[in-house]
Design brief:
Helices cover 33% and strands 26% of the residues. It is an alpha+beta fold. It has one domain: tRNA-splicing ligase RtcB.
Amino acid sequence: MDISKLNKIDDYQWRIEPRGDMQVPAIIFASEDLIRAMDDKVYQQVTNVAKLPGIVNASFAMPDAHWGYGFPIGGVAAFDPDQDGVISAGGVGFDISCGVRTLHTGLRVDDILPYQKQLANVLYRHIPAGLGSTGKIHLNKKQMDQMLAGGARWAVAQGYGEQLDLERIEEQGCMQGADPAAVSDHAKDRQKNEMGTLGSGNHYLELQKVVEIYDPDIAQAFGIRLDDVKVSIHCGSRGLGHQIGTEFLKQMTKSASGFGIQLPDRELACAPLNSGLGRRYLGAMRAAINCALANREIITHLTREAFREVFADSELDLLYDVSHNTCKLEQHEVEGHLKSLYVHRKGATRAFGPGHPELPAALRQAGQPVLIGGTMGTASYILAGTAESMQQAYGSACHGAGRSMSRRKAAKSWQGRQVVDELAKRNILIRSPSLRGVAEEAPGAYKDVSAVVEAAGHAGLAGLVARLEPMVCIKG
């Protein structure tokens, strides 16, 4: 990105002043090196978002921002329903409520190492992964609607998961306002055999070791110690979420002119929050959030079963589950007054600060755990939300490393077997049904996650708590 087009606020915050049809400025949180490495399309997209009706304060881009569909991936924007605000399917993304959950294993690195290969194989056998992967759960129409309305609460009621999990999940495991009737039969049909599956692309289940602690007090509050082994699950709403995104983007594109909305980019298709189309999308999107929460809860159940095959007395407690492709109605301060805003986070993680009432009581004073996925060959991070982030970016942070290379280019640059073998030399075991998928997700196809997380920390978006490195990766 051409840095001369930006006004430097400080070393980690850059501003694009409103011009033309921009209603608000655009702000990018990143180091100078990360800014220079960003595609110029990020500049174009973050400024286009600033042109949408009813946007409040600014259009934001996180340190891992890269080109996406309409909104940049790593984009955050809030809209006021009282000021003709809109909701955009492109501002949520196709993988609705894709997110990360982290589990404590109660085990240490030395406990795992003698059983590492066995555990990798057992997890791979238990957790369906890959394009079009299906599981053992098959939902009929009634069960599908119950799942879409109930989310992780439904999963727990069916015996997939534990009641205590729910307090450690956003929305306590169930997004209110979901409308299964707003979800098409085609979307439901795509999902009926996919519950409890990882899917493909950048989705994974990882066994990770804690290698560094940055904030001992918050780490203790989160239950994190050096040499602990954690499980991280990254996946979303599978085929159902993708179908909802596809269908509503088409409807929003066709309807925009009828709402008097001039789109700076047709991929920014949107609808007024108070319109029938906007309300239908909200209902369908919330149902997809519940689908993702139920999916990760079922995968957690399968993971616990796998661990008990190897460690009979193991107990995997949930640290937290947070999504990074959503639009949620939240209370935020605007010009000294609390306002109800619809906050879009696309490839951006909610990062509520200490004391926020929506956080579990046991975590509330430390701030929300912010779970940052890396690549299967680098590292992941656990951060904590800050009061500063609540003021700066609606309590939002980055969600991962961010791609620096397309999947097609990555597949031409690496061979899957080569990646698997190189990681095995570093004692990182990969299990995947697709070597091409492994090549597409090669660590070299991503930005430096450490640089991204460092920028987020310096910008005040979230505070660093711990660094984790992979031991086993089940890759979709």
